[in-house]
Amino acid sequence: MKRLLITGAAGGLGHVMRGRLAHLADTLRLSDIADLGEAAPNEELVPCDLGDKAAVEALVAGCDGIVHFGGKSVEGPWSVISNANIDGVFNLYEAARKHGMPRIVFASSNHAIGFYKQDQRIDNTALPRPDGLYGVSKVFGEALASAYHDKFGQETAIVRIGSSFPEPRDHRMLSTWLSYDDFVRLIERIFDVPKLGCPILYGVSDNATTFWDNSGVAWLGWQPQDSSEPFRAKIDGSRPKPAADAPEVVYQGGTFCADTIHED
Ligand code: NAI
Ligand code: 15L
């Protein structure tokens, strides 16, 4: 690619991928509402609020691919979620439609399906069961991606990310963990395949325990290579085992299922 846009580039995943995806494009265009630091020679910094339609249109112009990490990444007040994850995603897709429909990686979340129980194994055809306003906003993004694919041919990989951190932080994350290396390999595949369409897939490493079945997207040729297993003893030793009826043990979305609705 000539120019790859990473939104949310000042955030946890955006910061990591800023350092790991440079080989995919001549130029990385990096955007966020938060401070992005100094631009490296191969980087363009374009700060913007995703809720600002005109700014997002200018942001997307000239990009051949988009990794969309920007937005509210946990539960929060509706005004914040709706600005970033509803209006922001709409603005992004409208901008993409007007500027050549660059392929998009949409960072959806396991919280789009968080109310499935952990003893259920679901695949990429599972109906949404969002576990809060944040999850609902991700379902909206998934639906918008699907509509823009069917109407206009816009290609998106809808990645329901599990828990992508340097290492799993609790017992549930032993099942939901996605290593950074596996995520990089996934993004490489998404931009490499000749025809993508608009698949839903689970962003999860090759963990010994899992809730999710990615066999429906085997054609993508992505083979996660990491596992949370080496971290199990550390988690067992450092954290009390939660009660059998605790949300983090019962539901795929864990404690998000017990979060309240945040009023503005
Ligand atoms: P993060 O919260 O660290 O990063 C999100 C970034 O988006 C922040 O830098 C923030 O400033 C920016 N942002 C928020 N509102 C904005 C707005 N209105 N306009 C422009 N930028 C805005 O989150 P993280 O962990 O890096 O996640 C990245 C994406 O992946 C998010 O969309 C999140 O929902 C999704 N995700 C992440 C998971 C994980 O395990 N890290 C799991 C599931 C989904
Ligand atoms: C998410 O969607 C969040 O963005 C991330 O911070 C984690 O909470 C993750 O889900 C998770 O479920 O572990």
Give a written overview of the molecule.
Helix 2 crosses helix 3 and helix 3 runs parallel beside helix 4. The mean pLDDT is 97. It contains eight helices and nine strands. With 264 residues, the chain is an alpha/beta fold. The radius of gyration is 18 Å and the shape is globular. It has one domain: 3-Layer(aba) Sandwich (Rossmann fold), CATH 3.40.50.720. A seven-stranded parallel sheet has the order 3-2-1-4-5-7-8, with helices on both faces. D-galactaro-1,5-lactone (15L) binds next to helix 5.
CATH class group: Alpha Beta
How are helices and strands ordered from N to C? EHEEHEHEEHEHHEEHH
Mean pLDDT across residues: 97
CATH topology: Rossmann fold
Question: Which percent bin holds the helix content?
Answer: 25-40%
Poorly predicted spans? none
Number of domains: 1
Derived from helix and strand composition plus strand pairing, the structural class reads alpha/beta
Radius of gyration: 18 Å
Q: What spatial order of strands do you see in the largest sheet?
A: 3-2-1-4-5-7-8
Helical region count?
8
CATH-scheme architecture: 3-Layer(aba) Sandwich
Bound ligands, named by name, code or SMILES: 1,4-dihydronicotinamide adenine dinucleotide, D-galactaro-1,5-lactone
For the record, give the distance between the C-alpha atoms at the N and C termini, rounded to a whole number.
41 Å
Which superfamily, in CATH terms, is the homologous superfamily? NAD(P)-binding Rossmann-like Domain
Largest pleated sheet? 7 strands, parallel
